[in-house]
Amino acid sequence: MAGIREVAKACGVSVATVSRALNGRPEVNEETRRQVRLAAEILGYRPSVSARALVRGRSDAVGLLWDSAYETAGRRHPFLLSVLVGIKQALDAAGRHLILLNVEADRVGPRAYLETAAQFQLDGVLVMGVDSRRPALCAVLESELACVGFDVPISGPRATYVASDNRAGAMQAMRHLYGLGHRRIATITGPLSMMPAELRLAGYRDAAEELGLEHEYVYSGDFFLDSGYTCGARLAELPPEQRPTAVFVAGDEMALGAIHAFADAGLSVPQDIAVVGFDDIEAADLVRPALTTIQQDAHALGAAAVDTLLRLVDHDPATHTIGPVLTPTRLIVRQSCGGN
Amino acid sequence: MAGIREVAKACGVSVATVSRALNGRPEVNEETRRQVRLAAEILGYRPSVSARALVRGRSDAVGLLWDSAYETAGRRHPFLLSVLVGIKQALDAAGRHLILLNVEADRVGPRAYLETAAQFQLDGVLVMGVDSRRPALCAVLESELACVGFDVPISGPRATYVASDNRAGAMQAMRHLYGLGHRRIATITGPLSMMPAELRLAGYRDAAEELGLEHEYVYSGDFFLDSGYTCGARLAELPPEQRPTAVFVAGDEMALGAIHAFADAGLSVPQDIAVVGFDDIEAADLVRPALTTIQQDAHALGAAAVDTLLRLVDHDPATHTIGPVLTPTRLIVRQSCGGN
DNA sequence: GATCGTTCCGTAAACGTTTCCGGTGGTACT
DNA sequence: AGTACCACCGGAAACGTTTACGGAACGATC
C-alpha cells in the first residue's frame, strides 16, 4: 500500500534515489542504499507492477498459451501439470510472472495472441498443446515475439521448442529389452503426424539396427487405450514361434490396452511377453503388473523451456540462432518386463 | 502498438471520448462511438493493461495460489488441471485474467500473499491445495481480500470455499451398491483430518442409516495405493459369511490398491466383492476391471469457484454473507460392481 | 428572453514508477 | 588556480490510460 514517495519521505531522499537504491543501480551510496532498504522493509513497500510495467515498457511476465480443448482430448493432463510446476519454479527463480492465456472463439483471429502479448507487454510466450498449424500460432512464429513450444516443433526468428529426447528414450527402452534377452521386439506407435510418435519410432528403428535385430514389427496406434488393445490383439494372434517376445509401446495408455489384450488372449505379462511403455503416467504404477516405462523429466522440461525462452528474449536473431533443446529421459523398471 | 491517442487523432476526437466510447459509457453519441470503434478496429488498438490497471487501481486479474510441493505429494494433478481449465474458461467469460502465484521460501512471511496481491492489484485469489493452517493463508483470510478455497474449508470476511458434495457423492455410491443387492458394505476412508475424507465417511454413515444397514465396517486409509491394499487385505481375511460383499472406497487410488489385495487373496471383483471408488482418476478407466466410481465435475467446480470469487469481490461483508458452495457429483458405472 | 436541464465532448489531473538531464561538492591532475 | 572528472543525488518528464470538472450547443420551460 505504501508507495515509493512514502519511502522517500521517510529517508529524506528523492523518489529517484529510492528507485535506484532498490533496483540495485550503482550510482547510489551504499549507506544511503542501506537506509532506503531499511525504510522500505519497515513500511512494507512493494513496487506496483502496473506502474513499473507501464514506464519500462515490459512486464517481466511470460504468457502460457494452451488450448484447453486439445488438452482435454489429449488426456495429457498430469504430465502437463507437472511441466507447469517446473515452469513456475524456474520462472520464480528468474523473477518472472506467469499469465495464463487461452484465446478462444470470441477474440479469434490470426493476430489474437500477438495482440494479447502486446497488451500485457509480455517478454515472451510458452506454448503447450497448441496445434502448430493454427494461424494464430503461425503469426507468433513469424513475429519478433519470443516463443518456445513444448513438444511441438516450431521455429521462427525468435521461436524454438523443447521436448524430451524421444528418440533416445525409445532406444533406452529397446536396450533394456535386449539386455533381458529379447531378440524379437515389436513396437506400437502413436499417430506419426505427431513429433513424439515419429521420433519414438525412429528410436525403435535406430536401436533395432544398432542391436542387430533382424525383424521389424510395427503396429500403428493413436496413443489411446483402444488402439493399444487392437494392436496387442493382432500381435497376440501370431503363432508363438513368430511372435515377438517383447513390445515397446510408444505410450503408457496404449501399453495398458495392449496388456489387456494379451490377458484376454491368455498371454501373461511379463512371462509370455514383456512390455515397456513411454510417459510414466500415473496409472503405470497403479496397475498390476506395474508398467516398466520411460519417464520424461517434467521438471527439467519446464526449466529448459523457461531457460530457452529467457535466452530467446534478449538475443539477436541475426547473429546467432538458438536451437531446440532435448532433455533426457529415464528408464523406470517395474514389473512388466520381468528381470526384477 | 497503437495507443489511444492515435485512435483519437484518426477520428478527430479527444482521448477522453475514445476511452468513453470503447468502455461503453453512456455519455457518448452513438454515431461517434461507431466511428471510434471502427478506427480502433482498423488501427488494431488494444488498451495497455498496465496503464489501465495503474489508473483504475485494479487489474481485472485474479491470482491462483497453489503449493506445488503439496500437489506433487498429493498426486492430484489430473483433477486439479481439469479444474484449472474450468477456472480459466469462466474467467475468460468474465473478462478476467489469471496470474499464477506460488510464494516460496525466499519471500516467505505471513503477509507474502497479501503483499503480492496488492502489488498486482488483484481482484481476489483462488486457492488450491494449500494447507489452510499456513500463516500466509491465514493472513489472507483475515484480510479484506476476496478469496475462495478449493476443497479446503476456509472462511473469513471475504473468504469461503467450493467443493464437490462429497457427502452426497458417498451416498450415491452406497445407494448404487444397495440397489445391486449388497447389504454388508464396508468403507475405506481417507485421512480424516481432510475435509473430503471426513465428509465421504459421513455420507457412508448417513446412507447406512437411511438404508437400514446393520453393520458398519470402517477401515482407515490415507488416499494412497498402499493403504488401500492394506485395508483390502484385512477385509479379505474375514470369514466369508461375515465379510462385506461390497466396499465403498473414498479414493480411486486406494480402490485400486484394495482390488490388488483382493486379487492376491483369491477374491475376484466384482463377483466376490464389489468396489466403488471416488474421484474418477484417469487410471480408473485404464484398469480391468474398470472402476465404478464417483466423478467430480471439475469444470463445474472451476466455474463455481470463479463465480463465487466474483460475487465475493463486490459485496458488503457486513450486510450479507456468502457461504460455501457444493457441486454435485456423478456416478460412473463401469465394471467393478457388476450389474452391467 | 432568461433559466434550466440534457447531451455531448475536451482539458487536464491523476495513477506510481523509471530515467534523462542537470547540478553540487569533492578530488585529482595540469 | 583552473580544469576535468567522478560519485551522488534531485527535479521533472515521461509511460498510456481513466475520470472529475467544466463548457458548448440545443431544446424545453416559465
Describe this structure in words.
- Chains A, B: It comes from Actinospica durhamensis.
- The structure is a homodimer.
- With about 350 residues, chain A is of the alpha/beta class.
- Chain A folds into 3 domains: about 5-45, Orthogonal Bundle (434 Repressor (Amino-terminal Domain)), CATH 1.10.260.40; about 60-165 and about 300-325, 3-Layer(aba) Sandwich (Rossmann fold), CATH 3.40.50; about 165-295, Response regulator (Rossmann fold, 3-Layer(aba) Sandwich).
- The first copy, chain A, is built from 13 helices and 12 strands.
- The first copy, chain A, has helices spanning about 5-10, 15-20, 30-45, 50-55, 70-75, 75-95, 110-120, 135-140, 165-180, 195-210, 225-235, 250-265, 300-315, and strands at about 60-65, 95-100, 125-130, 145-150, 160-165, 185-190, 215-220, 245-250, 275-280, 290-295, 325, 330.
- In chain A, strands 2-1-3-4-5-11 form a 6-stranded parallel β-sheet, sandwiched between helices. A 6-stranded mixed β-sheet of chain A has the order 7-6-8-9-10-12, with helices on both faces.
- In chain A, strand 6 (about 185-190), helix 10 (about 195-210) and strand 7 (about 215-220) form a beta-alpha-beta unit.
- In chain A, helix 1 crosses helix 3 (about 30-45) and helix 9 runs parallel beside helix 10.
- The longest helix of chain A has 17 residues, at about 75-95.
- The model of chain A has no long low-confidence stretch (mean pLDDT about 90).
- The structure holds a DNA duplex (30 and 30 nucleotides).
